[in-house]
From TrEMBL:
It comes from the Eukaryota. This is POMP protein. Belongs to the POMP/UMP1 family. One of its GO terms (cellular component) is cytoplasm. Pfam families: UMP1.
Length: 140
């Protein structure tokens, strides 16, 4: 055999690529839903990316305005508060309103689409608490 053992080693799968069940694990239809290659490649509408990044773009504009008016310390302080609020979470199976984040962004006095039609408490799907915690901790 002219290929030798070094070429055989190149054809094998490295240990870092194969996790405990990652190599043979199938798509989890219950957690991730149906897959579509077309949806993974291209957005379904030209405005979809703009809508996905709306809050990020809004925050950038607000930070730039705040920096021009009050100086660099104001947006840094606000970003630090955002990070602190994001770290405080409920258990994954409990509904969280994220009221502190709404107050920081100034959305606490407005009613939006997500306030009425995106209420997780009204969701038809309620996960099992033990499975959701194991999934969050990476045990499942």
């Amino acid at each position: 055999n002219s290929r030798g053992t070094s070429s055989l080693l190149k054809d094998s799968i490295s240990f870092t690529e194969a996790s405990a069940a990652g190599l043979f694990e199938g798509h989890d239809l219950l957690r991730r839903g149906f897959t579509s290659v077309k949806n993974e490649l291209l957005p379904s509408h030209p405005l979809e990316l703009t809508e996905k990044n709306f809050q990020l773009n809004q925050d950038k504009a607000n930070f730039a305005t705040l920096r021009n008016i009050q100086g660099i310390h104001a947006p840094l302080k606000l970003q630090m508060e955002f990070r602190a609020v994001k770290q405080v979470q409920r258990l994954p199976f409990l509904h969280s309103s994220n009221m502190a984040m709404d107050i920081l962004r100034g959305n606490d006095e407005s009613i939006g689409f997500e306030d009425i039609l995106n209420d997780p408490a009204q969701s038809e799907v309620m996960g099992e608490p033990h499975m959701m915690m194991e999934h969050k901790l990476g045990l499942l």
